[in-house]
């Protein structure tokens, strides 16, 4: 994504972020399926008799939801990092952390430790909303034909090992710069 941003291929960066998201989602889906099979068919493999199986399933479900939201926003985070939007990412993280602590502590006092995981879920949802807003702002920052305006330092630098005079202007040049082996 960073290389696509550097050479002004905003649509390519967005395309890559979508592929990244679906790859993460498929891994999450497989993980949840395996966890479900183990908890339903073979609970003794991971749950001792000291723990209530229903509680373990509730916690696993809540944490799976948290992970689903986190993986959904991972491409936005990577894209925004590549674009050098570090301050905005930090501000969103601080806000979501405050929500996580406040809601989690409130739920802990009111309903107990399992319910307190709802604080984690609410914080991640706040972060997701912030990331969606930041991504939309980022998408609106490019001109109609794939150019890119970014104030971040990372977005102004060429990819590692490439001097500014080598930044490609054509699709073929970009392929050659991205993989020198293919260009030979």
Structural description of this entry:
This protein is an all-alpha fold and 184 residues long. It has one domain. The protein contains eight helices and no strands. It has helices spanning 2-6, 10-41, 53-82, 86-111, 113-140, 153-156, 171-178, 180-183. The two termini are 24 Å apart. The model is unreliable at 144-170 and 173-184 (pLDDT under 50).
Concise structural overview:
Helix content is 74%, strand content 0%. It has helices at 2-6, 10-41, 53-82, 86-111, 113-140, 153-156, 171-178, 180-183.
Notable characteristics:
mainly alpha; 184 residues; disordered C terminus; flat
Percentage of β-strand residues: under 5%
- The general outline is flat
Q: Whole-number radius of gyration?
A: 21 Å
Note the gap between the termini. 24 Å
Low-confidence stretches: 144-170, 173-184
Supply the helix-strand structural class: mainly alpha
Number of helices: 8
How many β-strands, per DSSP? 0
Number of spatially distinct domains: 1
Mean pLDDT: 81
Helix content: over 70%
Report the order of strands and helices.
HHHHHHHH
């Amino acid at each position: 994504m960073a290389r696509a941003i550097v050479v002004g291929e905003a649509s390519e960066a967005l395309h890559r972020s979508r592929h990244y998201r679906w790859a993460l989602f498929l891994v999450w889906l497989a993980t949840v399926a395996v966890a479900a099979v183990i908890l339903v068919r073979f609970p003794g493999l991971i749950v001792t008799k000291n723990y209530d199986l229903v509680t373990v399933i509730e916690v696993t479900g809540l944490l799976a939801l948290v992970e689903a939201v986190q993986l959904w926003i991972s491409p936005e985070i990577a894209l925004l990092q590549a674009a050098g939007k570090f301050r905005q990412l930090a501000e969103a993280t601080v806000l979501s952390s405050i929500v996580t602590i406040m809601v989690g502590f409130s739920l802990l006092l009111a309903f107990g430790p399992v319910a307190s995981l709802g604080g984690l879920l609410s914080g991640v949802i706040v972060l997701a909303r912030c990331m969606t807003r930041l991504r939309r702002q980022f998408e609106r920052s490019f001109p109609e034909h794939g150019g890119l305006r970014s104030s971040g330092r990372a977005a102004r630098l060429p990819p590692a090992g490439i001097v500014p005079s080598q930044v490609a202007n054509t699709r073929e040049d970009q392929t050659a710069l991205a993989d020198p082996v293919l260009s030979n």
